Amino acid sequence: MNDCVFCKIAQGEIPADKIYEDDNFFAFLDINPVNYGHALVTPKNHYENIYSLPDEILCNIGLLVKKISIAVKQGVNANGINIIMNNDGAAGQIVPHAHFHIIPRFANDGLWHWPGKSYPNKEEPAKIAEKIKGSF
Ligand code: AMP
Ligand code: ZN
User: Which pLDDT tens digit goes with each residue over 59-68?
Assistant: First the structure.
C-alpha cells in the first residue's frame, strides 16, 4: 500500500531503528514506546490485520515474536514482556499493517492491565460462549 507507514519502513523510504530483518519480516523500535525497548514485529508484505494474514505467515511470525521477545527482554534487562496485537480501530489499531507489539515490562513500572468486568448474572457467560462457538 502506497501510503502505509510500515510498508515505507520496509522499503527503506522512512527511517526506523530496526532490530531484526529477514526476507519476509522485520522488527523495529516503536517511535512512542510504552517502555524503552518497545518493539514492533511485522511482515514486509502488506496485510491489514490478523484476519487477512495468511496462515503460513502467521505461524512464522509467531515464532519470530518469541525470538524477538527473548532478545528484547535480555537487551533491556526487563522483568517481563507483554505481547499485544491490535486489530481494527475499535481495538486501538492505528497503523493498518498487521504487527505485534513486544512491550518490555519492569517490576513496579506503574502500568496496569485493563480493568475486568463482572457478568451481570451466572447464565450470561454460557450464553456468550454459545454465540462464539456458533461463529466458527
Ligand atoms: P497500533 O495502535 O497497534 O496500530 O500501533 C501502531 C504503533 O506504531 C504505535 O505504537 C506507534 O507509536 C507506532 N509507529 C507509528 N509510526 C511509527 C514509525 N514511523 N516508527 C516507529 N513506530 C511507529
Ligand atoms: Zn503496509
Answer: 999 999 999 9
pLDDT for 4 equals 98
- CA 1 – ligand 2 centroid, Å: 5
By DSSP bridging, strand 18-21 and strand 39-43 are unpaired
Least distant ligand from the CA of 4: 2
For the residues 75-90, what does the mean pLDDT come to? 98
Q: Give mean pLDDT, residues 9-36.
A: 97
Atom 13 of ligand 1: nearest residue by CA position: 30
- For residue 118, report the distance from its CA to the centre of ligand 2, in Å: 38
* Ligand 1, atom 12, residue with closest C-alpha: 32
Q: Is 30 in the pocket of ligand 1 (CB under 6 A)?
A: yes
